[in-house]
Design brief:
- This protein has 336 residues and is an alpha+beta fold.
- The chain is 18% helix and 33% strand.
- The chain has 7 helices and 19 strands.
- Strands 1, 2, 3, 4, 7, 10, 11, 12, 13 and 14 form a 10-stranded mixed beta sheet that branches. A 5-stranded mixed beta sheet has the order 16-15-17-18-19. It has a two-stranded antiparallel sheet with strand order 5-6.
- It is globular, with a radius of gyration of 23 Å.
Length: 336
């Protein structure tokens, strides 16, 4: 196996790129890429693509993400989380749980957010955190994100007046800043708020229950006798293959098309595929007409082999290749 996707559990205190650096040493593979960057404070699901699978990152970015967050009321920081410089501490005396519940219920559906200054969003070619670190001001426009659901799990008002905490889970679209939800909720409550902790519970089909830690991967590599000093290779070590998901695994919401070997070769060679040429077509569940393309293969998993992704062309009324992962050599020699 040369390509696939790992469901990594990112620990707190590491950047997403730190995870890639560690994985390169464990796997002995250079071509890796993560999807859905997590801040150093955050923990949880971080899908990492290997080899050709890095080409599906753009599809995975569209996946709904789920998080569990704890925020501290009465605190405002320059980063909108507890790692930043404290700007204000406010009294939360008189604040009631029902006040918090009502404000958080308003974060539903399409909302507008202004990205935090300490973020990687680009404005005029520079990252916002570069402006923030240089003490420069720049206009940051609001942008629309979608909140599928937000549920309060626990409201802890048992501490003193300036240590009230709220834990909630949220399902949201890409580009949503959870610490900005905390900040905006704090502004609406009139006391300020900052994110204390964040765990990504799911990213599309990848869940925290199935995630593997860097330590577990490292131990598996060591148990298989793989030296951390070995040269970089092109294939995933056999001892670690059980942790790797197929390239098509995260694309479950896409439609599905099955082709004969002859038609599969046409697809690989760049031909547009008419619907009448398909053995069967299952329509997508996602918002666009994107399809996983397979070829009949009695020896493949599920009797088929993944070829790539096609998009419906309104102009041609056919399926047009968007990304191809297979070669003609991968097509089974049947039906010729």
């Amino acid at each position: 196996m040369k390509d696939g996707i790992l469901n990594i559990y990112k620990p707190s205190g590491m950047t997403s790129n730190d995870v890639i650096y560690k994985l390169r040493k464990i796997l002995g593979i250079r071509k890796l890429g993560h999807t859905g960057t997590l801040d150093p404070l955050a923990t949880g699901v971080l899908p990492v693509c290997i080899g050709k699978a890095t080409r599906v990152c753009e599809y995975m970015d569209e996946d709904v993400k789920k998080y569990r967050c704890t925020m501290v009321l009465g605190m405002e920081t320059d980063t909108q989380d507890v790692t930043g410089e404290i700007l204000k501490m406010r009294d939360t005396w008189g604040l009631m749980p029902e006040d918090v519940q009502k404000v958080l219920e308003s974060f539903h559906g399409e909302i507008e957010q202004r990205p935090p200054m300490y973020s990687a969003v680009r404005v005029k070619g520079r990252r916002l955190y570069d402006y923030a670190r240089a003490g420069e001001e720049v206009e940051v426009k609001k942008r629309k994100v979608h909140i599928k659901s937000l549920e309060v799990e626990f409201i802890d008002f048992a501490h003193d007046s300036n240590s009230k905490k709220v834990t909630f889970t949220v399902e949201c679209s890409k580009g949503t800043y959870i610490r900005t939800i905390c900040h905006d909720a704090g502004q609406a409550l009139g006391c300020g708020a900052a994110m204390e902790s964040l765990e990504r519970l799911a990213s599309g089909r990848f869940t925290v229950e199935d995630a593997v830690t860097l330590e577990e991967l490292g131990e598996a590599a060591a148990a298989a006798g793989l030296s951390p000093e070995r040269k970089f290779g092109e294939e995933i070590p056999q001892a670690l293959e059980k942790y790797v998901y197929g390239i098509d695994y995260p694309l479950a919401s896409f439609g599905e098309v099955l082709l004969t070997p002859d038609t599969a070769r046409k697809f690989i060679d760049g031909w547009h595929i008419a619907y009448r040429e398909c053995i069967y077509v299952r329509e997508p569940e996602c918002g666009r007409r994107a399809y996983r393309m397979y070829v009949q293969n009695p020896e493949g998993p599920g009797g088929k082999t993944f070829l790539g992704v096609a998009l419906h062309s309104e102009k041609y009324k056919k399926l047009v290749a968007d990304k191809v992962f297979a070669r003609n050599d991968d097509i089974p020699p049947i039906g010729d």
